[in-house]
Amino acid sequence: MDSVVILGTGLAGYTLAREFRKLDKETPLVLITADDGRNYSKPMLSTGFAKGKDADGLAMQTPEQMAEQLNARILTKTQVASIDRSEKVVRLEDGSTESYGKLVLALGAEPVKPSLSGDAVDRVLSVNDLEDYHAFRSCLPEGGRVAILGAGLIGCEFANDLVAGGYQVEVVGASKHVMPGLLPSSAASAVQEALTLLGVSFHLNSVGTSVNQGANGLEVGLAGGDSSSAVQADVVLSAIGLRPRIALAKDAGLATETGICVNRTLATSDPDIYALGDCAEVEGLVQLYVMPLMACARSLAKTLAGEANEVSYGAMPVTVKTPACPVVVAPPLENGGQWQTEEVEGGLRITCTRENDLLGYVLTGTATSERISLNKRLPAIMP
Ligand code: FAD
């Protein structure tokens, strides 16, 4: 019997495998991952310091437990080097091959590397999986200083988590507000003020240009607004963005844009190869969040089990995990709506409407309790 082979054991790979096994208990299932294959929830990586959890504390299952639960073979620490579509095999780094009937790419996204000079650039870290998180925690002294490059969602979440965990945090961000592109300035200011009150320092309108070893730890040189001062840190964490991993697909001749292009059945330009999760671009949409990949996993599981299915996305608001100032945001899908900002006690209600239709919203602080009622009025992202 032809195998289903899934590349990747992140939330996309493991959720798909679980959904598939609910429908098909027999077809041989193989998962291949470059990492250690432990099952964990990636969003927890930016909440671990406040909870005092190390990487082992965040891991939920070993690959052996997952293999048993899924009745699957799981190859860990195994980098896939290429896909041979004519032979229907994936080639592993050691030269061996694994044949597939259907292949699923759940390869995730990789951190964008900042452009930096200096003698300590190789000590700049990013945290995009459990092993990165372990490495980051391991080189951070108790109560140490962290310079975060990037004031986007992930940078702000780490800032909140680290300061809550007793560390000293300075954030360097290129724009004049935190979370540009996601939050309007009033909501961004609320988050920045709340984090500042907790003790986070911000260097906005600034970019990190160099990282050097100094007498007092690492020195991050800045350009832009705050270029007069360098940031001193024990660890530099880069959080300037993620980019879908498309190289394997592109090298195999599959259609790619920002992500690996798939239609609503999650099929790539090769009908025997599918993609989902952070690496995929579904009908032009790249969504680096959990809710879309869950919808894709449920839909693709049906297709792989023999009942062709098309994915649909409902409204998918994003919760920003900054407990100092909780935020829920549902960006409008189209331009041209009317924005209205209302102050409520302990928060902001910012809505985007056209006539009586709600197109999107941003809620901060106590106003986040309104999300359930507002969600009912939001349009579906991909009906
Ligand atoms: P990944 O988890 O990155 O998995 C990719 C897999 O592919 C890995 O197993 C890797 O080893 C494997 N792989 C890659 N290349 C190869 C290769 N060549 N050969 C073999 N294996 C390979 N989203 C939310 O919705 N809410 C949140 O609160 C939230 N918080 C987040 C916090 C942080 C710190 C981060 C980084 C992300 C957060 N996200 C959040 C995003 C969310 O976690 C991701 O969208 C999701 O986890 C992506 O899962 P994935 O399986 O597609 O990718």
UniProtKB/TrEMBL annotation:
Q: Which residues form the Rubredoxin binding domain?
A: 310-378
Please state every residue range assigned to the domain named FAD/NAD(P)-binding: 3-283
Q: Which SUPFAM superfamilies does the record associate with it?
A: FAD/NAD(P)-binding domain (SSF51905)
Cellular component GO terms, alphabetical: cytoplasm
What keywords is this UniProt entry annotated with? Cytoplasm, FAD, Flavoprotein, NAD, Oxidoreductase
Do the record's keywords include Flavoprotein? yes
Query: Which GO MF terms are attached to this record?
Result: rubredoxin-NAD+ reductase activity
The EC number(s) attached to this protein equal 1.18.1.1
The kind of enzyme this is, by top-level EC class, is oxidoreductase
Q: Indicate where this protein resides in the cell.
A: Cytoplasm
* Cofactor(s) required, per the database record: FAD
**The organism sits in which domain of life?**
Bacteria
Q: Name one Pfam family in it.
A: Rbx_binding
Q: Which family does it belong to?
A: Belongs to the FAD-dependent oxidoreductase family.
| Name under which the protein is recorded | Rubredoxin-NAD(+) reductase
Organism this protein belongs to: Parendozoicomonas haliclonae
